[in-house]
Amino acid sequence: QVQLVESGGGSVQAGGSLRLSCAASGYSRYCMGWFRQAPGKEREGVATIDSDGSTSYADSVKGRFTISQDNAKNTLYLQMNSLKPEDTAMYYCAAIRYLTAEQALGIAPTGFGYWGQGTQVTVSS
């Protein structure tokens, strides 16, 4: 049973930074990802990292966000820099097996079988 618990969200001004964390348990050889969902919008993939450490990013966050994982701590991170008001959303971490980072970012979020409860990120202008 995979369990995911996000933390690190908050409110920040445009141009600021936040680091999200996702404590994971009960998994191995999973591809992990960060997703976000703004009010009235569909959930979208932000970044993924697979068990080999390869990463993939949505075009909207390339160069600003960095996904990483600490296998010793079973923790997934999302470092978010140069935040924009349009980054405001509920952020979720998720896990899926047997896919590469690029494959995972390309599928519908419903394909991910395991989700955390989410953490809110609010960026003010």
Indicate the topology.
Layout: E1 3-7, E2 10-13, E3 18-25, E4 30-37, E5 44-49, E6 55-57, E7 65-70, E8 75-80, E9 89-97, H1 101-106, E10 114-115, E11 119-124
Parallel strand pairs: 2-11
Antiparallel strand pairs: 1-3, 3-8, 4-5, 4-9, 5-6, 7-8, 9-10, 9-11
Q: Would you mind describing this structure in some detail?
A:
It contains 1 helix and 11 strands. The strands form 2 sheets. Strands 2, 4, 5, 6, 9, 10 and 11 form a 7-stranded mixed sheet that branches. Strands 1-3-8-7 form a 4-stranded antiparallel sheet, with no helix packed on it. With 125 residues, it is mainly beta.
Question: How widely separated are the two ends?
Answer: 40 Å
What portion of residues is helical?
under 10%
Structural class: mainly beta
Largest sheet entry:
7 strands, mixed
User: Which ranges are low-confidence, i.e. pLDDT below 50, for 5 or more consecutive residues?
Assistant: none
Radius of gyration equals 13 Å
Tally of separate helices = 1
Q: Which geometry do the CA atoms define?
A: globular
Number-wise, the strands total 11
Mean pLDDT: 94
Order of helices and strands: EEEEEEEEEHEE
Share of residues in strands: over 45%
Oligomer: single chain
